[in-house]
Amino acid sequence: MRGIHRLFVLIAMLALGVGYLYGNGLTFQTLADNVPFVQMVIVILIAVYTGYVHIFLHEFGHYVFGKMTGYELVYFQMPNFRYEVKTKQFKKLSTRVPGLMGQCLMKPPIKGNYNEKPYFLYLAGGLIVNFLTAMLFYLGSFILPVPISFTLFALSLPPFLLFLMNIVPLGFTDGSVIREIRKSEVSKKLYFKQLELSALFEEGKTFSEIPEEYFSEVKDGTYGQSRLGEYVLLIAYQRALSELNFERADQLLGAYQEKWHYLSSPYRQMLTSELLFCHAIFGRKEAAETLMEQIKAYPVLLGYYNRSRRTQVAYKFFVEMKVKEAKAILVQKSDTIDQNLNEAELALQKTLHDWLGSFMGL
Known about the structure:
Elements: H1 2-23, H2 28-34, H3 37-49, H4 51-68, E1 72-78, E2 81-84, E3 89-92, E4 103-107, H5 120-140, H6 146-167, H7 174-181, H8 185-202, H9 216-220, H10 229-242, H11 246-259, H12 268-281, H13 285-297, H14 299-307, H15 309-319, H16 323-331, H17 343-359
Antiparallel strand pairs: 1-2, 1-4, 2-3
Helix pairs in contact: 1-6, 3-6, 4-5, 5-6, 5-7, 10-11, 10-17, 11-12, 12-13, 12-14, 12-15, 13-14, 15-16, 15-17
């Protein structure tokens, strides 16, 4: 599916280029004759480096259209810098989710039930802004003379590219989420629960403080009707861990694997690490060793594993039987990781570290 997505984007971008040449009565040769080589290189470099500007405009579009429909800003991130409404401060994250260049998390309107809450403009806001920006430059490339028109055409490509990459309903793009929400009432409810849960965690709630109503789809199994159920299921899993209910946590991961493959998930790094953790503490040595080989083969997975001390400790202690190494990892200080975690994740981390420590006699 990713290949189809990329092919569509490539064809669309080529069509824009052909349209520019045809609309201005140009060929590659006449374009080269009318635009100095140095100008062409400079313009292309400028266009490439305006990518971050258009990512900002994309996220700002989510914010503007979200505010228009009653949403409240929780945080605005670009890409390692985050502005948090709760603290009214900017902070620099030491790590970020691979591939995530920006995010505008907003809390949906409180009034009305889930079926009445608006979602389209908030999700499509970034697409709208990117499309309008791209069209402004692109249409201008047909009005002004060639040296300037090429500059406008080149500047139209980054926002067009961002628009095309996010509108196709494949993977986990804005277009894909809109399409998923439209499938059923369950999908829509799961989407809004994800936003509300994210907002609750940013407000400082721990897993045990989340109301039971947020896990109704996990209890009745309807979470599996939509890929949007992944997030709620993972929160239920982390809640079980926070209660040291490891059997329940393991059951939830098993239920996940029955529905989806973890490597195709946007949460693949976390899921892989959690699967290894459960394999280790339940003594599934062969499964843990096989998964560890997979982690070592993927730098992104290995990077997340290296930041998860409890998973490292569990693997060292329960699988490799290296008690001294496990204890050394558990007691080491971590100054750069904790700043990225919310209160719920910090509390969970402490609970599991304490459990592992007591298990090893620390």
